[in-house]
Write a structure and sequence with these properties.
The complex is a heterodimer of chains A (139) and B (63).
Chain A lengths: L5 H33 L4 H9 L2 H17 L2 H30 L10 H22 L5
Helix pairs in contact in A: 1-3, 4-5
Chain B lengths: L1 E2 L1 H8 L3 H8 L3 H8 L7 H10 L4 H4 E2 L2
Antiparallel strand pairs in B: 1-2
Helix pairs in contact in B: 2-3
The chains are: A mainly alpha (139), B mainly alpha (63).
Chain lengths: 139, 63
């Protein structure tokens, strides 16, 4: 039987910790969103309650930043390429859709931007990882 | 940028994992450097050269 690949184990440790941080933050987010539908608040407390979901969102960003710090230089570069691609592609489509909104298209909620960035980042990450392992793309 | 990392590693009988451990990077990074897919940072290039007891120009050179 082959000995376990220590590099693979190290990467799994990174990913396990990131996955834990990421999903705990999302679970807190869902709990807060659901709670907002059932708990009635008034006055300043209401304002606090309404902006409360920003805390788990901040935790997600912290988890992503912590992962970035733990990675080695090539993996970090891959992640940064993916972040840059996600930001630029999302910005492009947000601008394009804002012009369509002026023509009467339904308004797109601003809170939808973050999940779109995350989704595009995930796709871009897979593409860049493939490039750096097989050089399938010419960049 | 071309390099002799694969040749130098094989001469010493090291696996990619062993070299990666010595340099504190991932095996994927070693694979990418050896195949010329990824050019290492200057600090990493110096670390590789030091490890193989060569000058940086002997390990890394232009195409």
């Amino acid at each position: 039987m082959n000995a376990p690949d220590p590099d693979k184990q190290k990467m799994l440790w990174y990913n396990r910790r990131y996955a834990r941080d990421f999903f705990v933050a999302w679970a807190v987010y869902v709990v807060i969103i659901v709670a907002r539908h059932y708990v009635t608040t008034t006055g300043p407390l209401h304002t606090v309650f309404m902006v409360l979901p920003i805390i788990p969102i901040a935790l997600i960003l912290v988890a992503m930043a912590r992962l970035l710090v733990r990675l080695d230089e090539m993996e970090r570069l891959i992640h940064l390429y993916a972040y840059a691609s996600a930001a630029l592609i999302t910005a492009f489509f947000a601008m394009a859709y804002s012009f369509l909104e002026q023509l009467g298209a339904p308004r797109f909620p601003v809170y939808g931007i973050f999940p779109i960035i995350i989704a595009i980042w995930g796709i871009a990450l897979a593409v860049f990882r493939r490039h750096f392992s097989h050089s399938a793309l010419e960049l | 940028m071309k390099n002799l990392v694969h040749k130098l590693r094989m001469e010493r009988g090291w696996t990619q994992v062993q070299l990666a451990d010595k340099l504190q990077v991932s095996r994927q990074t070693i694979h990418a450097i050896e195949h010329g897919i990824y050019d290492p940072s200057l600090p990493l290039a110096f670390a590789i050269s030091r490890l193989f007891k060569k000058s940086i120009e002997e390990v890394f050179f232009d195409r």
